[in-house]
Amino acid sequence: MTDRYDVIIVGSGAGGGTLAHTLAPSGKKILLLERGDFLPRELENWDATAVFVDGRYISPDTWYDAGGKAFQPQVHYYVGGATKMYGAALYRLRPADFGEIKYSDGISPAWPLDYADLEPYYTRAEWLYQVHGNHGEDPTEGPYSKQYPWPPVSHEPRMQQLSDDLATAGYNPFHAPCGILLDEDHRAASACIRCAWVDGFPCLVHAKCDAEVIAVRPLLGLPNVTLLVGAEVTALRTDPAGRSVTEVVISRAGQRESYSADIVVLAAGAANTAKILLRSVSGKHPAGLANGSDQVGRNYMFHNSKAVAALAKEPNDTVYQKTLGLNDFYLADESRPPLGNIQLLGKSSAGAMRGEEPKLTKLAPNWSLEEVAKHSVDIWLTTEDLPRPENRVTVDGDASIHLTYQFSNHAETEGLYRELKTLLNKTGMAAHHVLSKNFYADMSVPLAGVAHQAGTARFGSDPATSVADGTCKAHELDNLYLADASIFPSIGAVNPALTVMANAIRVGDHIAARLR
Ligand SMILES: Cc1cc2nc3c(=O)[nH]c(=O)nc-3n(C[C@H](O)[C@H](O)[C@H](O)COP(=O)(O)OP(=O)(O)OC[C@H]3O[C@@H](n4cnc5c(N)ncnc54)[C@H](O)[C@@H]3O)c2cc1C
């Protein structure tokens, strides 16, 4: 294998995989480095006990919290990255998210670009990732240049009833955007059997539009693209001036190897991108690469989220529950700041509940959990958290990640929960039937934090307060780009993956033009 490429991309998830897919038609020689392997396709993919209780697909890694306590982060080092396990809810940020937003705990800063700048790339990402939805239903969404490639996934009867009840009560429910390979008009031609195994499960039949299935697999066999799995990037080295990355150092099967390229792109996920930069210390970059501003690792975000099981008298036999969303409290009004997004989660099961709440469910017999699952409507509340400099990733001498994080915007989270309870009261699910499922309450750093990790190397116009410029090129380097969730200056209150994908396409176009 040659060790000189036009472009090296580190990480094959939402950012790296999408970027490789964007650049591949240019014919340029691309090396995609992925520390994990392909996620095995096996019956356990759809086994709640294997996935949630045994943690079969959680990659071994030990991180430390602010007090130095070790914990196992919910990371998935595979081809496709976190998208192998994601719920494929593929939302755009709202136009307001690109500007400054005032919260009770402070300011969510503006992006260096507007919604209008990213809109064409959102459209391309929606078409690449085969998103089902209906632009125009959600009054908070921004303008769109093209409708989704697929109609929305139809509601099953219980979800349709909930949607009708919400509309009758004066709310604006919409069909949630879902990335699945489903053709409801031609079932025989559809890969998706429309199952409950979406959130937190890999898809055995490859019908979830994740970065492996959509972006990376189609590149395998192309003469100009090489994928190297089991290849963990440990550091980047520069020329003596410290302006160009000249060597990408990896550890593969216990051996050190190195590769070089005209352009290097980091897309290892927010925490690991920061880790690679912080470990790449040199005389010219004593605090780590691209870190003259001391911003690398800082401003870590992950959403202030709450999962709720709302219980109703009538059974909920929905299989694919993630078809409904509600943004009525997303934007500020005269009386309150923005509260966030409400969406339906994958359907509860006894196995999933045991994995999520091991202590609480330890003594519960299976039948009781199954009874709860049978009547529950599972809901996910998301409030934006703020990029605070003290919320940060650091790396110790053993190359282990330390994560310091304090939640922000509690008032808004509680406000959203209050609105949910009011709304459930109006739709036949009494407030006292609402169970707050505080996921991972016993962990000092909650799992959800790792799932929606963002920030740590934000882009912006001012090199004193950001790591990369508007094109996502590191301010201090001529040939280093970032193309994952690390670049987020703020995270909004919708799921982040579509924004990562759209931005990766934007960065891909820029790099392709530069290489031409
Ligand atoms: C359970 C779960 C559910 C989720 N649900 C949703 C959802 O419904 N909608 C949504 O929008 N988002 C969802 N997310 C979040 C979404 O998956 C992430 O926001 C998105 O994947 C982030 O993209 P990324 O490119 O930054 O990182 P990733 O997609 O994680 O990609 C990073 C890649 O880099 C690799 N890597 C890491 N370190 C190295 C290294 N040193 N060398 C080489 N390779 C490396 C990793 O193995 C990985 O493949 C979910 C996440 C999880 C875990």
Notes on the protein architecture:
Helices cover about 20% and strands about 20% of the residues. It has about 525 residues and is of the alpha+beta class. Strands 1, 2, 10, 11, 12, 13 and 21 form a 7-stranded mixed β-sheet that branches. Strand 12 and strand 13 form a beta hairpin. It binds flavin-adenine dinucleotide. The site of flavin-adenine dinucleotide has 41 residues, from helix 1, strand 11, helix 6 and helix 11.
List keywords for this structure.
516 residues, alpha+beta, seven-stranded mixed sheet, six-stranded antiparallel sheet, binds flavin-adenine dinucleotide
Q: What proportion of the residues is helical, as a percent range? A: 10-25%
Question: First CA to last CA: what distance?
Answer: 24 Å
Helix tally? Answer: 11
Q: What sort of overall outline do the alpha carbons produce when their principal axes are compared? A: globular
The tally of strands reads 21
Biggest sheet architecture: 7 strands, mixed
C-alpha Rg (nearest Å): 22 Å
Query: What is the averaged pLDDT score?
Result: 92
The percentage of residues in β strands lies in 15-25%
Give every kind of bound small molecule, once each: flavin-adenine dinucleotide
Protein structure class:
alpha+beta
Low-confidence spans: 437-445
